[in-house]
Write a structure and sequence with these properties.
The chain is α/β, with parallel strands linked by helices and about 525 residues long. The radius of gyration is 23 Å and the shape is globular. The strands form 3 sheets. Strands 5-6-4-1-7-8-9-12-11-10 form a 10-stranded mixed sheet, sandwiched between helices. The chain has 2 domains: about 250 residues, Glycogen Phosphorylase B (Rossmann fold); about 210 residues, Rossmann fold. It is about 45% helix and about 20% strand. It contains 18 helices and 18 strands.
Length: about 525
Amino acid sequence: MSDQADASRGMESLFRSLFPGRRFLVVSNREPYEHQWAEEVGEIEVKRPAGGLTSALDPLMQALGGTWVAWGSGEADASVVDDRDSVRVPPEDPSYSIRRVWLTQDDIHRYYLGYSNQFLWPLCHLRPDLTRIRGRHWDRYRRVNRRFADAVLDEVRGQQAAVWFQDYHLALAPEFVRQRRPDLTLAHFWHIPWPPLEIFRLAPRADQLLRGLLANDLMGLHLPSYVENFLRCAERLAGAEVDYDRCTATVDGHSCHVGAFPISIDIEAFRSAASAPGAEEQMERLRKRYAADGEKIGIGVDRLDYSKGLPEKFKALEFLWERYSELRERFTFIQVAVPSRTDIQAYDTLTQKVDRQVAAINERFGTGRWKPIHLVKQSLPPERLAVLYRIADLCIVSSLQDGMNLVAKEFVASQVDERGVLLLSAFTGAAEEIENALLINPYDPEDFALRIRNALMLPAEERQRIMREQRASLQSIFDWMRSIFSAWGRVVGGEPRNAEELATAGSEAGVRD
């Protein structure tokens, strides 16, 4: 049995012991499987959208036989569902159901591209200057959230269930479910930062967003600082009675427990991919493609998103090659930049800026035999990323604001040779998680450049020591799920006496079965 399957079986046992007799539902904007029309006329193929969460939850859902409620985004999705908009997956061995929620183009424009990604996303990433809000966006966000809630309620009908909502797209749905089925147990994980009160109070109808989330029994965020921010917002903007020692917020007699649960990755999947048969041959081909003999290689992997600090990263690299000329033709940087939300103006503007920056740097410093920056504008599968991470002497994460940043953890997990160095923005959740990370301030390009140089000059023994400690301290996504389930079960079974007890539920769950 694979490590992933083994972990999923352990999670199944934990869930059934904590929630006996309850069905399990996951509710998210993104679905774990899409059905698309194949090139052959009339043929349908199944695709698995990229994403660490969907990849990790899929085997758990297979073990539990639950239901995943999600937007049916595939062009052939409607052609394969039954009369209740459901389809059994995975196709090779169906073991759970996807209950699809249908969105019109207007829904996508206003709920997803509009309110979710042009208002909530920039606001929570401390960029209120980039927010764009229209009354019709809010109305559609509310309407679509009710549609998701209706799908949940129709799915469970008279049964008992544990319902786990995901992320900022569905902030209102828990309250809609709670109003009609107060006996269900609800939890929510917010995958992006929760901003300070001074930022979140800028949101029109902030009280409604908060009340939607406070309908959960458990609200999960990445960091203790986000928990504190959330509780302050709940108290000041939603009129909740907050107990900061117990980490609870009570509205209309219902108490929501709030906890910090730092998300992670499937460590073994990246470790195995980096050391799989044929990996060293791939590494050799990549070195020949991107760097001459003896050149050091840096890597960055980011969505083309203004929160990721790509212009700041390239400014620091420009300073590096300008100030430290000995690194010209001795250090090459590979930037995987995944196109994202291209229908939103701020993202299109960023893409154009990145293209101009990279072209200017390559023209300024490049030679006939050396290209300073290789820009790869496409999504790469985890198996290929793991090999790229392994060949890198340096990984740079320069986010301006990031709830966690899983690239940092993917790099560490893939460093099976323990020779690479992680340079990590201080403004990521991962900076509070990964031991001995070399931190950078992306807003200070000269110091950033100096830290890149210093990282490249670290002695081999020091690089190995740091990486070994980081790899030993890395927690897996299964530890994350186990901690949430344990805390959730403890809340439902008898609420914790204080915040430490809630956290203990997670740490105790981190011990492998």
